[in-house]
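Input record (one chain):
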Amino acid sequence: MPIRITTLRQAHEFLASRVNFERQLAGPVESGDIHLERMRHLLERLGNPQDRLPAVHLAGTKGKGSTAVMIARVLEAAGVRTALFTSPHLQTFEERLTVNGRPPTGAELASLVDRVAQVTAELDRLPGQLGPTYFEIATALGWLYFLDQQAELVVLEVGLGGRLDSTNLCQPLVSVITPIGLDHTRQLGETIAAIAREKAGIIRTGVPVVSGALHPDASRVIADTCAERGAPLFQLDRDFDCTWHPGTVAKQPGDTPAPDHLDVRWGSREWARLPLALHGEHQACNAAQAVVALELLRSRGWTIPDAALRRGLREVHWPGRIEVLSRRPVVILDAAHNVPAIEALVATLTARFPARQRVLLFAASRDKDVAGMLHRILPVFDHVIFTEFSRNPRAQAADELAQMAREQGRPNCEVISEIHQAWSRARSLATAEDLVCVTGSFFTIGELRPQLLAELGAS
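The corresponding structure, as predicted from the sequence alone:
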């Protein structure tokens, strides 16, 4: 019998002991590292909790987490007891699984992990196969917690890909596929079409699909898959569209910022000047996908008043997504970790955040298209500091980042490998009229955010 888990520390130690593809990369989907049979066996031994709760299932390269949290907040505002499963976390594992915004307590998580650990020990003893992984166990913990907390509906974000992701044993009422770009190419494929095929693996027979994937190769794959499976498809910029109305940022004490708004049109329906708590035109597109997904739920009998739609979108708080921690200077944290996300960040900074000087603090994972990310972001910054996060072995060395920048014609970037010292240097360079942006990875943001919150007094 495995040791019983009774404390939060033991729970975290157990999770840290599992194979974790967020820290050590999985091979291509064909390699067998990623498959559903292991997850299916785990859930069967736990009583198949995923079969007892309906879901909204989301996949995509960027925007799926933001879209998921928008859907969840609106459902909560409508009085639906809503579970939300997202990844990765910024500070604590418990962030990944919430019900009406509440994560499990330490005692609750310890009890949940103990239940799963007993089953995991049985599966670990089976010959010739890898035991349940970190993310598979996280998904199972989510299902158990959601049932324990009497959730009515689960909003479920895919971890990697879709077709073979451990979330893909859910029972979806609506599937959402957000924009698709080149990311996780080692695992999912080297082309947009190949990656789209993996994402389209969440599409189920007869289940409606909301798609914000506009790349022609991606949209074609999604449309073909929907046609094959008899799944109604609602495509952004074809079946529905949105208009973003950017607000203004408060720069001086006493200034009143004007929030972003958006209009959404779908057939004869129009939602005018919906509030948008998250910054950027890309978030308006995410919100439009959320609106259509919610309307499809409403057509299935869920009560979601328009007042709840407005309240939920207005009250969204999603740390690390163009998160403004300070106004003078403007300090922004953003977890952009691939080229499409960096492009969205750059567009939003350009449109919404004028500054006398922009300072960039950047650290990234070595398995990403880091050169492509730098190509997009370096031109809009006046001063650049490269650093590296320490809590994940995938970090690209700071001096290697600087070498990439030199190869792109940017020779004068600073290198400060220790991330907290790098932040101190970035902050020292900025006057009240400037902007500091910290970005490049979830791991970058997760490592620095507690210190910045303490220093800057943000919440």
